[in-house]
Amino acid sequence: MNPAALIFWFAACIAIPFIAKDKKPGPVAIFFICLFLSPIIGLIVALCAKKKPIEDLEGSNESNEKTKVQE
Question: How far is residue 14's CA from residue 57's CA, in Å, rounded to a whole number?
Answer without folding.
Answer: 22
